[in-house]
Amino acid sequence: MKILKAAMALIMAAALTQSEVIDENDSESSGSVSVGYSVSASYEVTIPANVEFTDADKNTAIERPLQANNVLLEEGKHLNIYVKSQNGFRMVNNEGYIEYTLHANGSLISGTDNVKILTVSPGDKSGWVLLSFTSALSGDYSGFAGNYSDTLTFTVEMV
Amino acid sequence: MNVEKKEKKRKTILVIIFIAAGFMLGIAIGFFAAHNAPAKTEGGIGFTVVPENNLNDSHAENGVTVPGITSMSVKAGSDRLVTGFYNPVENKDKYYLTFQLWAEINGKDELLYTSGLVEPGNSIYEIKLNKTLEKGTYNAVIHIQPYRMNKDLTPTNNADIKAVIKAV
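Predict the joint structure of the above. Result:
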């Protein structure tokens, strides 16, 4: 063990001596190197892909989470997420439409413009909001059989 | 004799239990299959009006994950732009993604790029723009449209990711 310690001390002393030689005698070696690393802001958002009502559960709220994960924002910036319905919260087909409601953490979302449903604050790495979908159909549908659909667009921006 | 009777009775009970278990397993499989039938809607929110004896639902539904990109760079005058477009592995076996890149140029929204289907785990490193950009910073939107990995490639709800393009 003593021999090992002595060897280590010798190696360190030699290295120190060597570095001093370079600093003192080689004036051409001085200079600066710019080292940089650019980290882009990024995130991932998981949106409800699909919600399907049927006659059997038309009055039952269907819940889906929307989540923001792996959030890396620029200093002082927020991540805002908005939702917009293509058909004004109506599931449509050629024969007619069936209305439905959307609540985000209990707040009713309506209209045809983007509505903010989630904000991720600076420093937070994730966020989520619970979306609740309910068909407005009561009783039997008097129209035609078929598929009635709507599409939601979720807009995400860092501000 | 008494022992033989007892043994026979035990075997009969075992057979009854076996048949009942098989019957219940069949019911469970049928119920599971009915509740995992594929959705029929074209968009993301749907209502299927069907005859009462043909009801189905698809509540066992997961979300689709989309990437957030905030900034892209391009050399002014070049039609090659380095992107960070990718389809997260969380979508494996479930969703393809497509990407459209829009930019506001002189107050007008212009489509700069449209991708094909991107499989989960894959990415697009560099794209060819429909037009070159002069030096400056442009507001952009990446429209991400997911598609189910089924025969019909059913589109789902989608996302618009706001970003900037820096032409330097």
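Residues 2-54 of chain B form one domain.
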